[in-house]
Amino acid sequence: MTSQNAALDKTPPLGADPRRWQALFYIALAQLMVVLDGTIVNIALPTAQEDLGISAGNRQWVITAYALAFGGLLLFGGRIADLWGRQRTFITGLVGFAVASGLGGAAQNELMMFGARALQGVFGALLAPAALSLLTVMFTDAKERAKAFGVFGAISGAGAAVGLLLGGALTEYLDWRWTFYVNVPFAVLAIVGAVTVIREPAEARNRSTLDVPGVLLATLGLVALVYGFSRAEHEDWTETWTVASFVASAVLLITFVLVESRVKAPLLPLRVITDRNRGGTYLAFGLSVIAMFGLFLFLTLYLQMIRGYSPVETGVAFLPMVVGMVIGSTQIAPRLTTRLAPRYLMGSGLAVAALGMLWLTQLDLDSSYAAVILPAQLLLGLGMGTNFMAGMSLATSGVRPTDAGVASAMVNTAQQIGGAIGTALLNTIAASASSSYLASRIAGTSNEAEQLRLGLESEVHGYSVAIWWAFAIVAAASVIAFTLINAPRSQGQMVAGDGEADQQPAPVMAH
Question: Rounded to two decimals, what is the model's pTM?
Answer without folding.
Answer: 0.80
